[in-house]
Write a structure and sequence with these properties.
By secondary structure, this protein is an alpha+beta fold. It has 2 domains: 2-182, Nucleotidyltransferase, domain 5 (2-Layer Sandwich), CATH 3.30.420.10; 193-302, no CATH class. Helix content is 27%, strand content 28%. It has 9 helices and 12 strands. The strands form 2 sheets. Strands 3-2-1-4-5-6 form a 6-stranded mixed β-sheet. A 6-stranded antiparallel β-sheet has the order 7-8-12-11-10-9, covered by helices on one side. A hairpin with a 3-residue loop joins strand 10 and strand 11 (262-272). The longest helix has 14 residues, at 289-302. It is globular, with a radius of gyration of 22 Å.
Length: 304
């Protein structure tokens, strides 16, 4: 399997009149292909002719130092995207700095009525997250140049162009230790369509469940799988200690106790899908008795 490390640059409306279906129009794709030993085996770089926003936004112009004249004779997005996918090959996983690029790539593809990359969530590596897990506090999200500095990577080409940022992201990825790579991510631009398509993934210290779509929040919360709390290590039902509660109607919390593995915290996040329905991202994580008491106190304060 190859690692396709890519980065995008995009333009947007400079008048405030954006096209709702494509607020960010991709004008550059840069990518590096790494083999299983994280050695470079290929490069990809293309500029793209804009079809939607014909003037460069001042932020785009100042950040990537490119002029519209350099783009007008380039190929269209569908042409470049087909070239990119051909270059990727048949066995690969996408890798990006942060989660945004893969979503916007698919949004641009949908605008041009291209076939979807996948029929459901796409497994990928968010190298920004992996850097935090491997070298910092697991939560903080840093700029790419910060990671390059921390790891002592040579800055031999400028930042803030699609290929150069893909190049440096690949350099950071090559420094990630093997166990950290178990912490892959899922892009949910395309949600699971059926119960059989739902995602259940166990990571080093938590479990994630991504549901199919529901018409509304009430329907989601009436689904048995959504509200269930099981120990993801021994797969047994846990004793419910804190029933589901919410302070804002978007995030729901609960907790249980496994006789073998201890207290487990459950969190439900309600998400809006691209077609205005809802889906659920649920995480389960083992916690200490002290953390359990903090959650119980939070629930108690919300009682009328």
């Amino acid at each position: 399997m190859d690692y396709i490390v890519f980065d995008l640059e995009w333009n947007q409306s400079d008048t405030g009149r954006e096209v709702k279906e494509i607020p960010f129009e991709i004008i550059e794709i840069g990518a590096v292909k790494l083999n299983e030993e994280f050695r470079m085996k290929g490069k990809f770089h293309r500029l793209i002719k804009p079809e939607i926003y014909k003037e460069l936004h001042y932020i785009t112009r100042s950040l990537i130092h490119i002029k519209m004249e350099e783009l007008v004779n380039e190929k269209s997005f569908p042409e470049v995207m087909e070239e990119f996918l051909d270059w990727c090959g048949d066995d690969y996983i996408f890798c990006t700095w942060g989660p945004i690029d893969l979503t916007e790539l698919q949004r641009n593809m949908r605008f041009y009525q291209m076939p979807a990359l996948s029929g459901g969530p796409i497994k990928f590596y968010d190298v920004q997250k992996l850097f935090s897990i491997g070298f910092e506090d697991r939560k903080t999200r840093r700029a790419l140049e910060h990671a390059v500095d921390v790891l002592g990577i040579e800055k031999d080409i400028p930042f803030h162009r699609a290929f150069s940022d893909a190049y440096y992201t690949a350099k950071v990825l090559s420094r990630i230790e093997g166990p950290v790579l178990h912490n892959y991510s899922f892009d949910v631009f395309t949600t699971p369509k059926t119960k059989n398509d739902e995602v259940k993934a166990v990571f080093d210290n938590y479990m994630k469940y991504i549901s199919r779509e529901f018409n509304d929040k009430s329907e989601a919360l009436s689904d048995r799988e959504v509200v269930s709390m099981k120990c993801y290590l021994c797969r047994k039902n846990v004793k419910c200690k804190i029933g589901w509660f919410s302070a804002n109607g978007k995030h729901y919390y609960g907790a249980g106790y496994c006789d073998i593995h201890g207290y487990i915290k459950a969190k439900i996040r309600m998400r809006k899908s691209e077609n205005k329905k809802v889906y659920v991202v649920k995480t389960l994580k083992f916690i200490s008795e002290e953390d359990f008491n903090v959650l119980d106190e939070k629930r108690t304060k919300l009682k009328p």
